[in-house]
Amino acid sequence: MLFVLRMLLMGLHFIAAGVLGLLLGLCRPFNPDNSRLCARLYARPAMRILGLRLDAQLSPQFARARPCVIVCNHQSNYDLFVLGNIVPPRTVCIGKKSLKWVPLFGQLFWLAGNVLIDRGNPLRARRSILQTTETLQHKDTSIWVFPEGTRNKGHGLLAFKRGAFQMAIEAGVPIVPVCVSTYVRSMNLQRWRSGEVIIRTLPAIPTAGLSAEDIPQLIAQCHAQMQACIVSMDTQLGDALPDQTDAERR
């Protein structure tokens, strides 16, 4: 019963936040700070409705780190409500072009200045990446990327794709890892207090002087640091995965 009530409230909230966010986007289209404000519109009421408790362990420099490429693990659609609480100023996100057609949310996502990539068209995707690199270099704006490329559904950190790291190197900006505990595995929406989430930022990884040849090592370094952090947070919450190989987690 509680789950059904929450889903009804979340549906109403999603529509209301979408309308308000769309009005904001129409008033100042493509402003890079729209993304942060709209994220708060979705996130803060949603966390109360869902009964999730957030422990945000952010470094003092996180809100002032721009321009940078923020990389974060991606678990589920609930990430919108969890991560929306910490999106720093002038930060936009990279998403699939198909998001543009989701009623209210898709148009809001576009007007908020986020980057839509057509993954089915390599040429257009490459043009979007070049445009994003330009944004990083000249517009005092950071880019938020989920380097796994898809939701891991709480089964462990997936392999990272190259795009985020290539952008950071080409723009000469640091990479800032953001780690989220594996909340989807323990969240129980049938309870008033449905679960706890920890978000922790890691020290920025500089990319100055690196080239495309350094991307595999950069990916390995970032993946290892984030994986260790996620395991540490899950252990703190008593929700660690049993030992598994990467192949089993995938």
Using brief descriptors, characterize the structure shown:
disordered C terminus, alpha/beta, 250 residues, globular, lipid metabolism, single chain, AGP_acyltrans, 14% strand, Glycerol-3-phosphate (1)-acyltransferase, 1-acylglycerol-3-phosphate O-acyltransferase activity, phospholipid metabolism
Largest sheet: 7 strands, mixed
Sketch the topology as an H/E string, one letter per element.
HHEEHEHEHEHEEHH
| C-alpha-based Rg, rounded | 18 Å
Give the rounded overall mean pLDDT: 88
Low-confidence stretches: 244-250
Q: Report the sheet-strand fraction.
A: 5-15%
Strand order of the largest sheet: 1-7-6-2-5-3-4
SS element count, helices: 8
**Could you name the CATH topology?**
Glycerol-3-phosphate (1)-acyltransferase
Query: What is the 3D form?
Result: globular
Number of domains: 1
Determine the oligomeric state from the structure: single chain
Q: How many β-strands, per DSSP?
A: 7
Helix content: 40-55%
Name given to the CATH architecture: 3-Layer(aba) Sandwich
GO molecular function, one term: 1-acylglycerol-3-phosphate O-acyltransferase activity
InterPro entries: AGP_acyltrans, Plipid/glycerol_acylTrfase
Keywords: Acyltransferase, Lipid biosynthesis, Lipid metabolism, Phospholipid biosynthesis, Phospholipid metabolism, Transferase
Family: Belongs to the 1-acyl-sn-glycerol-3-phosphate acyltransferase family.
